[in-house]
Amino acid sequence: MSEKKYTKDHEWVSIENEIATIGISNHAQESLGDIVFIELPSVGNSVKAKDEICVVESVKAASDIYAPIDGEIIEVNKNLENDAAIINQDAENEGWIFKMKISDSNQYSELMSEDEYKQFLEQ
Amino acid sequence: MPINYKTGIINEHKNVRNHSGIFDVSHMGQILIENNKTYLHKLEKYIPLQLKKLIKNRSHYSFLLNKDGGVIDDLIISNIDIKDKSYLYIVYNASRKKEDEEIFISCAPNAEKIYNKNCLFAIQGPDSINVLKNIIDIPNNMNFFDILISKYDSNEIIVSRSGYTGEDGFELSIPNESAENLITDLLKNENTMLCGLGSRDSLRLEAGLSLYGHELNENITPIEAGLSWALDKERLEDKNLNGNKILSDQLKNKLSNNKIGLISTNKSMLRDGMTLFDNNNNEIGKITSGCFSPNLNKSIAIGYIKSEFNTDNPIFCEIRKKLELVKINNLPFVKKNYKKNGSVYE
Description:
The structure holds two protein chains of two kinds.
Chain A: E1 5-6, E2 11-16, E3 19-24, H1 26-32, E4 35-39, E5 46-47, E6 52-58, E7 62-66, E8 71-76, H2 79-82, H3 86-89, E9 98-102, H4 105-109, H5 114-122
Antiparallel strand pairs in A: 1-2, 2-3, 3-9, 4-6, 5-8, 6-7, 8-9
Chain B: H1 9-18, E1 21-24, E2 29-34, H2 37-43, E3 59-65, E4 71-82, E5 85-92, H3 97-107, E6 112-113, E7 118-124, H4 128-132, E8 147-152, E9 155-160, E10 169-175, H5 176-186, E11 194-195, H6 197-206, H7 244-252, E12 257-264, E13 275-277, E14 283-293, E15 298-306, E16 315-319, E17 322-329, E18 339-340, E19 344-345
Parallel strand pairs in B: 1-11
Antiparallel strand pairs in B: 1-7, 2-5, 2-6, 3-4, 4-5, 7-10, 8-9, 9-10, 12-15, 12-17, 13-14, 13-16, 14-15, 16-17, 18-19
Helix pairs in contact in B: 1-6
């Protein structure tokens, strides 16, 4: 699997064989607090980077999740339908939200590395 | 006061329901007003109680009313003696300090705001008495909404058996210099914890309690907010009370809106400001507070709905441009657990 990259909207992306796996960062999970519900995106939808594609509801607020890159949604993490709190427990592994077939790998390389994301959070 | 501490809103909420939790509500207003006939008469223009007849060492939930009977603020008012002098002790919302204090000072120029020198802590939950009793002297026969002066660190503190979570509990008004010691003492009990605004909101909502700025504002009367029980009915005949005519008319007639409890039928979250519709897409009401209920494991809400709407018909809530079915639920969502008459719990 490729290096994990991050967006300014606090999503993480990792890529393997042109399939991107996406979730929200551990930092995002911490600031949202207890997550109680996630409205998952629809499989088969083609989306563009920055499109709002699903919503995470925590006890504090609803938070939109954006597509980090262009592509087609090919799988969603069904486990989250019954237990969205998995994201609180393991945001950057078991708490993955959806997978996309990506169309432009350049968009991926433009995202932040883990170190760059850490610096971004400190700003 | 933060939204939550380390373990999160749901954990804090459950700890209060099952054991106890401590809220630092020092941001709230606290004022002492001399129990003097002239002052009480002036205050009775705004407060729908017979202030001259308040029983010593008891608290009352009440309001400041504007000339239309709308709620300027909701508050807790108590009659207590401090150092042999009789006072009204009033606790009011932080967001309404300016409006409230203008009224208090106009009625009683020497009213003494004490929130800069006294912290206010609420300890809430069925174990509150066990956490407190080794630290502060609490008489066995103290009931919900009783209030008294006790001692801590040789300082006098105001102790009331009250709170806003639907659970048994206490509020402690304590001089700043002793506040840290008290919290340290309370937290020695390993089943209690500090709790934040998030769980304070979900606990009061489950208990069906109104919050200023949500269910209550200057355009809503206590009767419209379903709180007519808190009004002294004799005062509604008294012309000295703001909005008395409007209020007594409202008591006799059908209201245009009713306060209701709602519960989500799926996992979607109901939030403040969302609009309610009937099955013909007509707007029938609005949500004023919504949250996730840790006790019911569903989203719950309080709102207002047109009284002409027949609540046997389905109700839909617009959530992110989709209409979701919601169900009416009697208030409160979670039964209150107050201490009354010795050891009997309601």
